[in-house]
Write the structure tokens for this entry.
Amino acid sequence: MLNMHQTIKIRSWQTVFIMIGIVLLPLLLLINADFGLAIIVTIWYWELLYSLSVGMENIPFLMFLLMFYLFLLAAYVDDQVFHYSEGVVLFDKNITNHIYWCLGISLIFLFIGNYFAKYWHINKINSKTSSLKYDKSVLNVSLILFYICYIPYIITGILHALYSRTMGYTSLYLDDITILPYPVRLIAYMCPVFFYIFLASLPNKKKAFWPIFFYIIYSIITLFSGQRADFVINIIILIIYLAFRNKLDINKKWINGKLIVALLVVAPIIAILLNFLGQVRLGQDTHYNSFFDAIFSTLNSQGVSVSVIGYGKEYEKSIPNKIYSLGGIVEFFKYNPISETLLGTRGFSGQSAGRALNGNLFSHTISYLALPWGYLHGRGLGSCYIAEAYHDFGYLGVAVWSFIYGIIIKGCNSFCDKGVWGRAIILYALYNILMAPRSLADAFISGFLQIQVIIAFFIVWIFSNYSFSKAKIFNTNQ
């Protein structure tokens, strides 16, 4: 009887959400929202509803849609629906329509790639080449290395926060902080890699508690250096991981409804706090007229990424003719230590006109063209995979890159079917995947080409195999 009641209750809620979806488009048009924006928001809502209907089965896509809204839709919705325009970058009609076309094409092909990927059996690829004993070796090695690297990692975070408070947040982007020697910083930057490999080894709750706790502590410290997106994405990845563990450990609940409700209640408060800290770091006015005013201000501050698409169109004739959607990969092969030694190439650091015009990262180029003085003084717009794709290949590029992202996000659902290294790759890639609406198009690949990532994976692989082989020899002798 209870189950029947619960089923009816769930179906009634689904009916409410469907009814909202049906009236959403005419309602948006009724309040004079742009037709293009109304269409896009409606598409986004139905895709969100689809993700919710399958529950935890497609949680990476659900979280990506939330990031898509936060970075690319929220500012325009606040402006046209709630008439809160503070911080919103507006363009002329032609560029605005271009933005709508890009967002619409991206949403449609994200869904197509994500939906039809299931017919290609991406989630059924079984790469469980490791045994439980081997996974335990990976667990022990990665946990020890995580704790070793955590000390310089947390020190680096604290120094960034202090430097930001003393010299200003934008100074972090103008100068490299070299208080700690490079080898120490390299060790520190390997810490999150070891953390995700540790999670991929599937520790039990007791073993996972303290590493997760310490990682959250570090994420909180990053707030004081102004890195709000890092905090948000780190927490979201942990939520996705807990959802994966729910699926793997059927008899154990890693995340439940109460925790999800608590997060939904606390989320607006955290969001306001993040925005408040961001305004303090820039010396801006922190007075809010109401709670909703604070929410809109917070959403608009994160929604600047949509302007990257607009600026990309506005300055398209001034942007150097390069393939920016592969910029991260190009930068690695041009400026890695071997290339610098053999070819004499030299990488860029900080923010300068030379880096903006001669480098391969769209974020630097567009920030310099749109905000030349601000860019040279530490400000920036970031990037957007949609803007990079359009610059390189037009609307077809937006469709193709979005389709690729739809497939990749669907592939993340195969976490439970992978071996330890496949799971580790998925967890580490999630950060760059979720950041794609305000980051590099190829970051899910180029993120693995960083020297600290390569070394960290290699070290764990070497020591895990040695530990596993030694244990096998010991057991055989017995």
Observations:
- Residues 132-167 form the longest helix (36 residues).
